[in-house]
Write a structure and sequence with these properties.
four-stranded mixed sheet, four-stranded antiparallel sheet, 11 strands, 17 helices, Chitinase A, domain 3, single chain, disordered N terminus
């Protein structure tokens, strides 16, 4: 597995920008695809079919990324962006039915989070909220908004006159309808036409609709918006107005244009949507995150594959059945600390047993031997249970016994394994999940290969 901004597996730790929490790492198939490095216009980073993508946006992403990942290569970033775009654009074609006879869309819940292309589902709005947060962070890197900006001077008309219309469309007085926090398709279309704020830049009026604010709000705010809370409507409208003002100021004062910003936004939303698709497929989830799509891939796993995996990875299903251990028993905490310090300083364990232990087994052929302790034995003593959990070859810290009359120091010299059998349900579940993830990843690679082969891709040769 590998590159979401840069193809599936790159993780940028401690990076303050959400945008880099998971970058779509470039899969190996890209190198074999029909991608050409060519002389493109200076403002074009790459071109997919007839669509050019902003050089300015790519360079900004690169600069932000390299602050926390200096080893990131520009061509890896570009190839990851191409991969994201194609995955999201053709997500509807990503289905299991043709290849595996399973009628399930892989895109599933990962509908495109791109701004202006929304679904009524809370999950999809959540993706849009994440995209906007990451996009906002990148805008702030270009040019932060001045704190003294007075947005009220830009407002032509506020939300007051639209409240009754909103209450009617959202059926605020219908308690049955209000149970569902999501909007219906009809409500979405209607709220797109209800302006909650009209503002003016340079004599030209623009609108912020109720859907604009609803689709960019978290769950808590959506609940209040659903009930037509005027204060929240106004607050959220101002936030969108501030972002649009910031975009305008960036275009005015820097070398950016609106298409550059649109591409930057697209890069973010593609990344978020592609990441959601991979999570839905189970490719970037752990074994305990068994998604419905991953469960569908379970049916692609055969018994011979399960058996082969088990035989090749038996050590993954090994557990400790028993241990061979020795111990030292002393009466007080101070004595225990003294012995422990001596052992850590290099005193031989056998010598320590003979010198300090008060247990009669100090005189056994192997001083202080507890013998073989089997975890399945019933009636194990407390000290035997403690010995079972100690690492091999390390002197344990002192333990106070339950009666409070003695302290124990352990040395486990050997752990004897046993293998869980293939009939164990947890073993089968683990193997099937791993093989399903592998099959999902293989299918995705095949899908990407076809997308790349079917697309006319040109990359500015400066990235070669």
């Amino acid at each position: 597995m590998q590159c979401l901004f840069f193809g599936v597996g790159y993780m940028a730790k401690s990076f303050p920008f959400l945008i880099l929490t998971l970058a779509l790492l470039l899969l190996a198939v890209v190198a074999q695809a029909d991608i050409r490095y060519d002389q493109l216009p200076d403002n074009a980073a790459f071109k997919i079919n007839d669509r050019s993508f902003s050089q300015q946006a790519v360079l900004h992403l690169m600069a932000a990324s390299q602050k926390h990942n200096p080893n990131l290569k520009a061509n890896r970033l570009v190839l990851g962006l191409i991969e994201n775009y194609l995955l999201v654009k053709h997500k509807g074609d990503l289905t299991l039915s043709k290849n595996f006879g399973i009628k399930r869309s892989i895109a599933g819940a990962a509908n495109h989070a791109a701004l202006g292309n929304h679904s009524a589902k809370s999950h999809d709005i959540g993706l849009n909220v994440q995209s906007l947060a990451e996009y906002q962070q990148l805008l702030d890197l270009i040019q932060p908004v001045k704190t003294e900006v007075d947005l009220t001077k830009l407002i032509v008309k506020g939300p007051d006159q639209q409240l009754e219309a909103l209450k009617k469309v959202l059926a605020v007085n219908d308690s049955k309808a209000m149970i569902n926090e999501d909007l219906t398709t009809k409500q979405i279309n209607q709220t797109k036409d209800i302006p909650v704020l009209i503002y003016q830049f340079d004599g030209q009026q623009s609108v912020i609709s109720f859907w604009d604010i609803f689709s960019s709000s978290n769950v808590h705010d959506r609940t209040r918006l659903r009930r037509v809370d005027q204060s929240v409507i106004y607050q959220k409208s101002l936030r969108i107005l501030l972002r649009r003002y910031q975009e305008r100021e960036i275009v005015r004062n820097t070398g950016w244009n609106f298409q550059d910003l649109e591409d930057l936004k697209r890069f973010v939303t593609d990344k978020v949507s592609a990441q959601a698709m991979l999570k839905n497929m189970g490719i970037i989830a752990d074994l305990h995150h068994n998604t419905p799509t991953l469960q569908s891939f379970n049916r692609t796993v055969t018994e011979p594959e399960i058996e082969a995996y088990y035989q090749q990875h038996r050590d993954e299903f090994m557990q400790v059945s028993s241990v061979m251990a020795r111990h030292i028993t002393v009466k007080t905490q101070s004595e225990a600390d003294k012995v422990y310090a001596a052992l850590k300083s290099g005193l031989d364990f056998s010598e320590a047993v003979l010198k300090y232990s008060i247990d009669p087994d100090k005189n056994s052929s192997l001083p202080g031997s507890l013998g073989k302790i089997d975890k399945n034995d019933k009636g194990l003593e407390f000290r035997q249970k403690l010995a079972l959990i100690q690492p091999v070859g390390e002197v344990s810290t002192p333990y106070r016994m339950l009666d409070g009359k003695s302290y124990e120091i352990f040395l486990v010299e050997e752990k004897l394994p046993e293998y869980l059998t293939l009939t164990d349900k947890s073993v089968r579940r683990t193997i099937i999940s791993k093989l399903s993830q592998k099959n999902a990843a293989t299918y995705l690679e095949s899908f990407k290969t076809k997308l790349l082969e079917d697309s006319d891709i040109k990359i500015n040769r400066i990235y070669q």
